[in-house]
Amino acid sequence: MKKLSVAAAMLAVFGLGVAHADDYPNRPIRMLLPFSAGGGGDTLGRILAERFSVELKQPVIVENKPGAGGTIGIATVARAAPDGYTITIGGMTTHILSPLVYKELPYDPIKSFTSLGAIGNSAIMVVANNNFPANDIEGLKKLAESRKNPVQYASWGVGSTGHFCGEILVQKGKLKMQHVPYKGTTQIMTDVMGGHIDIGFVDMATATPMVTQHKVKGLAVCTKRSPSVPDVRSYKEQGINFDRDLNWAMYVPAGTPKPIVERLSSTLEKVLKEQDVIAKLLGLGISANYVPGPAHEKANLADIEAWRAVAQDAGIKPQ
């Protein structure tokens, strides 16, 4: 038998790779989520997993792996085989803020992944007790100026998106505020309703039902107005010059073959155009808006730099 030339051997291997990609998927896919079960990120993942299962004609099995601000689960995805059978959903904390909060990450938020595309823009809402004397940022500023002590605001931890949104008001709005870190948004809402904390910064999945049911009131949305609660004005509409998107996105490990990336990306784009999915995401405070992977990766780089400036001004240092 004649030996294959190097070129022929490489062509044979490449051909096998293409055939495998063409056959994708031929077994169940794992959607590894870095969030706790029952939260907004988990609900988002399960909505998309259900639709992906139908479109790809293979089960998409959700696995939750929370911890350390989502970095444990995301690191697991970064180490997974780049074969299209492990996908994940990331947000502000996992891919934008973590590099600014942690000195050492077990992954590179840019180089360790390939983006399948942005899912949509979410937001953080500033909420207060219904009897709180301020109704917007201007009222909050006047209240802060009239007090001897700073307005206290709650977020779900140092370095969280809520913490960063609070610091934007301190820096851009010149508000006198003091950060009070909480363990989670449930405790924040309890203390806001009870009047034990001045204001709270919570995700839209938590805030939307509470505001629409008039259990609390919304003062502002960081950073852009959400169609989930359209009467609450954004930061920019209230004179705060900062309006970066807070995007959710879907990722696979870096090195995943291009045909598989394209298959998954086109599936995501198709699913995000379905009216039922759009409505369900809106209920979570997410405005569905597909952005192709390459464009989204460029936006991530710009976002990291924009939020880095916020971290530096606020004295939020990697730990």
From TrEMBL:
First and last residue of the signal peptide: 1-21
UniProt keyword terms in alphabetical order: Signal
InterPro entries, per database record: BUG (IPR005064), Bug_dom1 (IPR042100)
Source organism superkingdom: Bacteria
Family listed: Belongs to the UPF0065 (bug) family.
UniProt name for this protein: Tripartite tricarboxylate transporter substrate binding protein
Source species: Achromobacter spanius
